[in-house]
């Protein structure tokens, strides 16, 4: 039965109010200790260690021996209580901090899971940009080296066969904006790229390589 009670106590949830109650109890003990020290001070500041007998070994007549002994005994007991309550406060603060950290970690994990559930899964890319020439149409459209393409006009992951599919879209879209979607840093990025003549080669000014998956 005793072991069950101890286990239940171990599992008890510590709250901020519990810690506040322990601190209040500690403050009350400290006030009581101070009050008893005041008693000793009123008795000629005998403290906890001054002898209560005179040089001849007789009980001192200039102080209230009963009051001093009572105060000293009470201080000794209260100091033990004070040590115990400080241990309780330290353990309670540790448990409270651990619980708050566990709750914070759980909230973060749940929020991350919720974000992942809300974000649509990205389709696998079928091509990657491995070069972009400065000043080119691709550069002006914001295409970056390393962008992984998941849509290029009407071409997407499900119907892509080879780079000729992209070339065909480019040839038929000169001077017209083509909607493309890429994966950049794990995020879907939408761009508008207009194939057109410029000072360099081709209509895009970027190099695209297929991804074999």
Automatic annotation (TrEMBL):
- Which residue stretches belong to region Disordered? 99-126
Which terms under GO biological process does the entry name?
proteasome regulatory particle assembly
Bias type Basic and acidic residues, positions: 102-118
The record, for SUPFAM superfamilies, names:
PDZ domain-like
Keywords carried by this UniProt record: Chaperone, Proteasome
Q: PDZ domain spans which residues?
A: 83-186
Is Chaperone given among the entry's keywords?
A: yes
Q: Name one GO cellular component term.
A: cytoplasm
**Which interval of the chain is the signal sequence?**
none
* Assembly and oligomerization: Interacts with PSMC3. Part of a transient complex (modulator) containing PSMD9, PSMC6 and PSMC3 formed during the assembly of the 26S proteasome.
Q: Which family does it belong to?
A: Belongs to the proteasome subunit p27 family.
Function according to Swiss-Prot or TrEMBL? Acts as a chaperone during the assembly of the 26S proteasome, specifically of the base subcomplex of the PA700/19S regulatory complex (RC). During the base subcomplex assembly is part of an intermediate PSMD9:PSMC6:PSMC3 module, also known as modulator trimer complex; PSMD9 is released during the further base assembly process.
Record's PANTHER family?
26S PROTEASOME NON-ATPASE REGULATORY SUBUNIT 9 (PTHR12651)
**What protein does this entry describe?**
26S proteasome non-ATPase regulatory subunit 9
The organism's lineage?
Answer: Eukaryota, Metazoa, Chordata, Craniata, Vertebrata
Q: Which gene is the coding source of this polypeptide chain?
A: PSMD9
């Amino acid at each position: 039965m005793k072991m069950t009670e101890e286990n239940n106590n171990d599992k008890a949830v510590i709250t901020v109010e519990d810690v506040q109650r322990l601190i209040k109890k500690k403050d009350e003990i400290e006030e009581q200790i101070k009050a008893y020290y005041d008693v000793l001070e009123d008795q000629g500041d005998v403290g906890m260690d001054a002898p209560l007998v005179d040089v001849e070994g007789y009980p001192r007549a200039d102080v209230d021996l009963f009051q001093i002994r009572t105060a000293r005994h009470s201080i000794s007991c209260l100091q033990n209580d004070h040590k115990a309550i400080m241990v309780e406060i330290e353990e309670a603060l540790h448990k409270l901090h651990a619980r708050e950290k566990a709750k914070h970690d759980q909230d973060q994990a749940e929020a991350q899971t919720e974000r992942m559930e809300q974000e649509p899964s990205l389709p696998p890319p079928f091509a990657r940009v491995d070069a972009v020439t400065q000043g080119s149409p691709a550069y002006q459209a914001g295409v970056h080296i390393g962008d992984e393409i998941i849509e290029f006009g009407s071409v997407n992951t499900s119907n892509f066969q080879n780079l000729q599919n992209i070339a065909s879209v480019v040839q038929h879209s000169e001077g017209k904006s083509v909607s493309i979607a890429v994966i950049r840093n794990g995020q879907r990025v939408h761009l508008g790229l207009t194939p057109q003549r410029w000072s360099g080669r081709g209509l895009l000014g970027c190099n695209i390589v297929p991804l074999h998956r």
